[in-house]
Amino acid sequence: MELRNNYRRYFNFLNYSLVKPHRINIVQMNNEIFKKHIEKEHIIKTRILKWLKNYDVILPYKRSLKNDHQYISITQEYCLNHIENDWNVTMQIILEKYPDYQKSIKKYLDNNNKIFLMNMFVSNRKFVDDYCSWLFDILFEVEKRISFSDDPYQKRDFGFISERLFTLYIFHNKLKVKELPLLFIKDYF
Questions:
Q1: pTM > 0.90
Q2: Where are the domains of the chain?
Q3: H helices, E strands: number in the chain
Q4: Which whole-number Å values give the CA distances from 11 to 69, 89, 117, in the listed order?
Q5: Residue, of 38 and 140, whose pLDDT is higher
Q6: How many CB atoms neighbour CB 174 within 10 A?
Q7: Distance from the Cα of residue 162 to its chain's centroid
Q8: CA distances from 73 to 31, 110, 173 (A)
Q9: Rounded CA gap, 93 and 97, in Å?
Q10: InterPro entries this protein is in (predicted)?
């Protein structure tokens, strides 16, 4: 098991006193603080293994999506901030390949504003294999059917789509989730 950086984001496995629930902490990091954190890696491994006996997956706290201070659904948020056609194509593909997801799309994407962002998780190999098989089966088909934007932000389309699909997958499969706060590292050495 190895702790990895995801755009300077880390799960906060150790010190919950730093964190208010459902918040992201921004931490000023230097070599000394980082070294102390890594020295506690055995504690982190022990906690992770214990959690995974009771939970299917460890995720960052889910977030609520808003636009102009009003809650909006995952579908609405995607269509407002990204390319709506890409979303529609993705939903069409899911319904073609996985028709049993139809009710879950309505419930968890069209009528829900809770989302697991960041594409970060810790789980066992079976979960990773099952999820990735499902996800990439969809994304490879999406890739065949959409046009890619010249906008550098929208070129990250598959990352944005996969965050939403991850949330759908978690809820549809009724997985037991352990939510943890994140640390965002402000200065990286």
A1: no
A2: 9-61+181-185, 63-175
A3: 7, 10
A4: 27, 33, 13
A5: 140
A6: 9
A7: 8
A8: 41, 6, 20
A9: 6
A10: DUF4422
Q: Distances from the Cα of 6 to the Cαs of 78, 103, 132, 185, in angstroms?
A: 22, 32, 18, 10
DSSP 109-152: IIS--EE--TT--EE-HHHHHHHHHHHHHHHHHHHHH-PPPSST
125-165 tens-digit pLDDT: 999 999 999 999 999 999 999 988 888 777 788 999 999 99
First to last CA, the chain: 23
The answer to whether 22 and 61 have CB atoms below 8 angstroms apart is: yes
Q: Name residue 21's amino acid.
A: P
**Residue 138 exposed, middle or buried by CB count within 10 Å (0-12, 13-18, 19+):** buried
User: Contact, 186 vs 28, CB < 8 A?
Assistant: yes
* Residue of 54, 163, 145 lying closest to 97 (CA atoms): 145
**How sure is the predictor about 35, in pLDDT bands with cuts at 50, 70 and 90?**
low
What tokens does 97 get? 């390949």
Spatial distance between the Cα atoms of 63 and 3, rounded to a whole number of angstroms: 23
Cα(78)–Cα(55) distance, rounded to whole angstroms?
29
